[in-house]
Design a protein that fits this description.
Blueprint lengths: L1 E6 L2 E6 L10 E9 L2 H19 L11 E2 L3 E9 L12 E3 L1
Antiparallel strand pairs: 1-2, 1-4, 3-5, 5-6
Length: 96
């Protein structure tokens, strides 16, 4: 799949392996996605954000790995992982 990826301090568009849903997760197909101000802020200040997350006891981003940006999206449900309630049908459009 193609994704906007935060890699080595830059946002790049690249291909990555198609995801599979894990326990309690839903697999979706992205229809539209935006990069918001918090993503751009993370790009510019990621090391400081990691430091602050550690100080307040939150799990920080792992900057040694690719981070997929774009948490504001519209998508449709494709599949379900184990342990999901499956209240919505595949093809249902959802957003975050």
């Amino acid at each position: 799949m193609r994704a906007a990826i935060f890699r080595n301090g830059e946002i790049v568009v690249d291909r990555m392996a198609d995801p599979t849903p894990g326990p309690g997760q839903v697999l979706v197909k992205t229809l539209a996605c935006g990069i918001c101000g918090s993503d751009l802020h993370a790009r510019q200040h990621a090391p400081r954000m990691v430091e602050m997350a550690r100080k307040v006891g939150r799990k920080p981003m792992d900057l040694s790995r690719d981070v997929v940006f774009g948490h504001e999206f519209c998508c449709e449900i494709v599949d379900f992982g184990p342990g999901t309630e499956r209240k919505l049908r595949p093809g249902t459009r959802v957003c975050s």
